């Protein structure tokens, strides 16, 4: 027993140098471990982002398909769907418009775009029915026109109805771009949805396309269909 106490009394503690070296080694190990975790976390984030982009694109394509295939009168594309007043159309563009007959028996037009639009006055039966707020670029919007009027006499955007198809939460912080190409001979429309990280639609994540078969034999209209309402 005396021998054990003698050994313990003679044992030296850890020096300051040893303590500093040990702390340095511990920091080094933690730093290496943290650095190895960052790439793995980034890969996981990118994978989740890609999965989200694929889901958004699939849903948007199905929504566009269900709308476009019902066109009964004419179909056309615009280079920019933000303002189509007095604009001619073509067979390719970022927005698509098509005519159809309503249940009430009159012809109307529907425009699908993700190009954004300003505040829009809703006019039903020549009566103001409120205003839809501005929609930023990157979100699918449906606009419905009656008698071809897309602006009032003062040049303000009007529509018979307008809706942002999905709430912003649907996009999970991402944005969407649309592109359409009409093949009049085959009676098809190729719709492409591209998902981006940024509001300027420059940082691409994912893109997918869908060929839509038109139910009716309709032509591409290149003339003006959306006009300013006279005073």
Report on the structure:
The protein is an alpha+beta fold and 231 residues long. The chain is built from 2 helices and 15 strands. The chain has helices at 2-10, 16-68, and strands at 74-78, 92-93, 95-101, 107-113, 120-124, 127-132, 141-146, 149-151, 158-159, 161-164, 175-183, 188-196, 204-213, 219-220, 227-228. The strands form 4 sheets. The chain has a 6-stranded mixed sheet, with no helix packed on it. A 4-stranded antiparallel sheet has the order 2-11-12-13. A hairpin with a 2-residue loop joins strand 5 (120-124) and strand 6 (127-132). The longest helix is centred in the first third of the chain and has 53 residues, at 16-68. The protein is elongated, with a radius of gyration of 30 Å.
What layout of secondary structure does this protein have?
Blueprint: H1 2-10, H2 16-68, E1 74-78, E2 92-93, E3 95-101, E4 107-113, E5 120-124, E6 127-132, E7 141-146, E8 149-151, E9 158-159, E10 161-164, E11 175-183, E12 188-196, E13 204-213, E14 219-220, E15 227-228
The helix/strand series, from N terminus to C terminus, equals HHEEEEEEEEEEEEEEE
Shape: elongated
Structural class: alpha+beta
Q: Radius of gyration in whole Å, from Cα?
A: 30 Å
Give the DSSP E fraction (strand runs of 2 or more residues): 25-35%
* Main β sheet profile: 6 strands, mixed
Number of helices: 2
Q: What's the total count of β strands? A: 15
Oligomerization status of the protein chains: single chain
Q: Give the rounded overall mean pLDDT.
A: 87
